[in-house]
Design goal:
Length: 243
């Protein structure tokens, strides 16, 4: 039996387990199992591997996309540059980290891009944000990071004025704000300056339309949630594990 799974904490609303269960059934993939492995601390990662020697691949979610790196033997070029991992491949006793969030996001965003989508605001600074920044660079879109805490090169939410909002026509929410069950929360950006030229992308997929997206749609903006990105990154993980 080949075992695959997801590490993170908590994992009560994981997408991956249901996705792979359905994939295995639909595509008649036998001898494979995908399970959730909620570990309260990343220090429990080595003992998890000891308990499950049949592990072929893992996905990694919040809060371990960066913290897992010291436990790995190697990183893909993208994962090394991003500094975050969401996919681990076990092969010949070696643990290699990849980042398929980049693939999923770029493929999902690309069909929506128009000529005026040159500059982006990236809301948040976590592991997911790092993948988004890398993908935007690959797509030739410059970006400004927005953060509650003043970190390297980031701007504050309070500093977002009409001029900034008009100049940045792509806005990506990489924070968990708006995610079930706290659906009433949303990033504090000046939504009144959004127009039909704006494209709002939310990595959150549950609910399907967050308050962030609803507020964008009300201003005529194009909106998209993270569901397709999740499917694309999961398929990219499966390819890595089976190449």
């Amino acid at each position: 039996m080949k075992i695959y799974g997801l590490i993170g904490y908590p994992l009560s609303h994981s997408f991956s387990k249901g996705f792979f269960k359905e994939k295995f059934e639909k595509e008649h993939i036998e001898g494979c199992l995908y399970d959730n492995f909620p570990i309260p601390g990343i220090s429990e990662f080595p003992s998890l591997l000891e308990q499950h020697p049949q592990l072929h691949g893992l996905n990694v979610t919040i809060p371990y996309k960066e913290a897992v790196i010291p436990y790995l033997d190697d990183l893909s070029k993208a994962a090394a540059q991003i500094g975050a991992v969401n996919c681990i491949h076990f092969r010949n006793g070696k643990k290699t980290g990849y980042n398929t969030d980049v693939i999923g996001f770029a493929k999902s965003l690309q069909p929506l891009l128009q000529a005026h989508h040159q500059h982006a605001l990236v809301l948040g600074t976590g592991g997911a944000a790092k993948a988004i920044m890398y993908a935007l660079e690959q797509l030739g879109i410059t970006y400004t990071v927005v953060s509650r805490q003043p970190v390297n090169g980031a701007v504050s939410y309070e500093s977002l004025d009409q001029q900034t909002m008009e100049a940045h026509t792509v806005i990506v929410n990489t924070t968990p704000l708006g995610m079930y069950p706290k659906t009433e929360t949303f990033p504090e950006i000046p939504y009144q300056y959004l127009t039909s030229r704006h494209l709002l992308y939310d990595l959150v997929y549950n609910p399907a339309e967050t308050t962030f997206l609803q507020k964008g749609a009300a201003q005529g903006a194009t909106i998209k949630n993270g569901h397709e990105m999740l499917i694309l990154q999961a398929e990219a993980s499966w390819e890595i594990w089976n190449k």
